[in-house]
Design goal:
There is one protein chain. By secondary structure, the protein is mainly alpha-helical. It has two helices and no strands. The chain is elongated, with a radius of gyration of 14 Å.
Length: about 60
């Protein structure tokens, strides 16, 4: 169950990162780049959790 939740969170945060990057590009970099960086940080953390659970199941 937790593995599926982490996978969904990873995909959600990755999409938010892409949308945030598009928002920054759309506004010629005048907005804070945190709109793309913070979701990617959460995506990387949840992806690492997903991988750790996968290794523990073997």
């Amino acid at each position: 169950m937790m593995k599926k939740v982490l996978l969904v969170l990873t995909m959600l945060f990755a999409v938010l990162c892409i949308v945030g990057g598009g928002y920054v590009i759309l506004h010629d970099g005048r907005v804070n780049t945190g709109y793309a960086v913070i979701p990617m940080l959460f995506a990387l953390v949840s992806m690492q959790g997903y991988r750790m659970i996968g290794k523990n199941e073997k």
